[in-house]
Amino acid sequence: MRKVLIVLGSLFLIAIFALLCVITTHTPKYDGDLDLIGLENPVEVLFDNYGVPHIYAENELDAYRAFGYVHAQDRLFQLEMMRRVGTGTLSEFLGNSLLDTDKFFRTLGISKQATISTDFWNNQANSPIKEATNAYIDGVNQFIREGNLPIEYVLLGEKPREFTVNDIHAITGYMAFSFAMAVKTDPILTKIQRKLGNDYLKSLSINTLPDHVTIPNFYPPSLSDSNQTSGNLQAMLKKLPVPLLKGSNAWVISGDKTESGKVIFANDTHIGFSSPSVWYEAHLEYPGHSYYGNHLAGMPFGLVGHSDFQSIGLTMFENDDQDFFEEKLNPNNPNEILIGNNTSPIRSRIEIIKVKGEEDVEFEVKETIHGPIMNSVVPEIAELTNNPVSSWWVYLQEPSRALEATYRMNRAKSIDEVALAAELIHAPGLNIMYGDAEGNIAWWAAAKLPIRNKNSNSKFFRDGSDPAEQPTGWLPFSSNPQSINPMWGYVVSANNQTDTLSTGDYVPGYFYPGDRYDRIAKTLEQRDNWTVEDLKELQNEVINLTHPKNAKLMLTAARLDEFPEFEGLFDEVQNWDGSHKIAEIAPTLYYKWLYHSFRMAMSDEVGQETFESFIQTFAMIRSTNLFLSDPENKWWDDVSTEGEEGKSDILTLALGQSLKELQAQHGNDWKKWYWEKSIVSEHPHPLGSQKPLDKIFNVKTEALQANAEAVNKLAFSLNGDGVYTVRSGPAMRILLDFSDVEGSISVLPTGQSGNRFSPHYKNQAKLYTRGEYRPQLMNRVEIENDSKDRLIFTPEN
């Protein structure tokens, strides 16, 4: 027995030693000294208690070279996933289960466009922007060659290739796609139109409705003009190892409405939950420059951030920047399409996809003058028509200048400089939010807006053979929606419809109905002495006022007397104020009932698969109130039966189904059907889909107050299971008062680092779940007091 104990003890010690070796080998280096090639002078990096690097350099290039290294050591695997999505090379790294995904992104054209943008970049004269970008890339690559690579590479048996500027453009392209709603929406709406007719569309909010809240414009006088596969698309996108960008809130309040008399800035971008979360914070200082930024993996300049003078944030504009043209083939030449009386060639290219452990896969991509033909990679399109359907996408119309735009914004010294930088963004559409120490507040809708045929609806396939359907140019940036120092004292953006242009037309898009905007704007109107402390409550609010209205419509129409034992539950729903706190009961019934109501109403006409795709789109959120209140809604009739059902019939059936399932799920006592029991909150890692790696890499949290369209939007997908996994939420929450820029606060959903062995992998998860914050330090003395880790980069001899 003694020998057995000795052997077991020895094995235990060996295992502990081996684990420590693994951890040491794959842990970021936060302390000590490192040689860095290309440095002119030493660079000091202080890591605060949350792992944010505060980089002190004597010149710009040294700062970005060091930043590239520390960014890579914390987020290299995330960078790997993002660049591989953009370049369509996931199969090479993760295997053939991602082959359809690679084909989709190659066909869409992101990889091709990255090459075009790279060529444009390389042909530009040398500049500080290019030098800073190249220095960052050099820092990333030195880490790839010499640093402690994350454990994911060992588990996959892979090594990273070097990072390039082409990868940056591919990452930008993926971000542009993430914002593009058309490919996920238009085929479904076109199917409904063609199969059922326009009468069925009347109960869906395809376009902005009169009761939707719009963002008011306030134009300044000084701005000048300048010029076939299996499954469906949604199922394929669920395989992506990186999160999709979903929406966002931002508001900026003028000093006239704050206690300090200075501008207050707030931003929370809504992005799919992931581990690590999307944003990486970094504070860079060198003579003449001090900036605290939020960066995407692989992006050297902050998309969101602030200096002591200005703060910049963003939300999704949600403009429609992608059209689908159904082409008419030339009967005399199948390699041509007809546009009026003219012909236009169909071009083709061969893409070669490397697949891990298998032979390379070749496939053909065909393109028309409108763009790539998508039938073979989007099942919903292939189901609709045998005619070629081309994707015309603003992002593919010119090289990306995102690097230049973000570099300029990070260094802007005036509101005019930010406006000029915003004009460089052609796609994806972004709402740029701005505030500064001089009291200016502003919002610009940054995007190139095409001039389209006003008689056509951009949500449906266009006739590619009709010359009148072709885009004819671009609106000048000065006409874009914007608000500069409005007299009402604030600007707000929450993915809702912008006000009409000077032409009197709405910008077409996939805008949300305005619940969040309305709640924020009406709250800001109530007082003129706002503080950061006061705004914490608003930023974390989980009340939505539309859903109680919907619930009352459902209660009024259903035959409640068929369920007398649930009278108390119906009273609970009747009196619901729209809160989604975890002890609420009304949301538990409401969302399940809502799902079954839409399912029973729609699936008999369009099929279960199309219905499931529809409820993932913006149209579901926009249409709910109209759908429930429209007295002529044709969806209520079950076309599979001989009789004609009405709203009361379907809602009663759906209610009965919901109550039965909730009893099975939570027990017979409805008073214990707490919202908390229906929520799963987890930040998934790309490798976390495989057990037992989910236990290692995924970050599970306390139950969140999941909701649909509250200010603190913690979104989930409707489903029949009644278990809702929070899919997205604020990817950070920032609050800043220009009376104390160094006292700005923020929080991330998980942590700074994507390295599982880093102490900063998930050390903000509890703060985030509980609606708490931590400082964004910029004061050197405070940083030194807070920092336990100091990394010194020295020039390599």
UniProtKB/TrEMBL annotation:
CDD domains the record matches: Ntn_PGA_like
Task: Return the broad EC class.
Answer: hydrolase
- State whether keyword Hydrolase applies: yes
The EC number of this protein is: 3.5.1.-
Q: Which Pfam family name is an example for this entry?
A: Penicil_amidase
User: Which Gene3D superfamilies does the record associate with it?
Assistant: 1.10.1400.10, 2.30.120.10, Glutamine Phosphoribosylpyrophosphate, subunit 1, domain 1, Penicillin Amidohydrolase, domain 1
What terms describe the molecular function in GO for this protein? hydrolase activity
Tell whether Ribonucleoprotein is among the UniProt keywords: no
UniProtKB keywords: Hydrolase, Zymogen
Q: Which domain of life is it from?
A: Bacteria
**InterPro entries, alphabetized:** Ntn_hydrolases_N (IPR029055), Pen/GL7ACA/AHL_acylase (IPR014395), Penicillin_amidase_A-knob (IPR043147), Penicillin_amidase_dom1 (IPR023343), Penicillin_amidase_N_B-knob (IPR043146), S45 (IPR002692)
Q: Which family does it belong to?
A: Belongs to the peptidase S45 family.
What is the protein name given in its UniProt record? Penicillin acylase family protein
Protein species of origin: Algoriphagus sediminis
What lineage does UniProt assign to this protein's organism?
Answer: Bacteria, Pseudomonadati, Bacteroidota, Cytophagia, Cytophagales
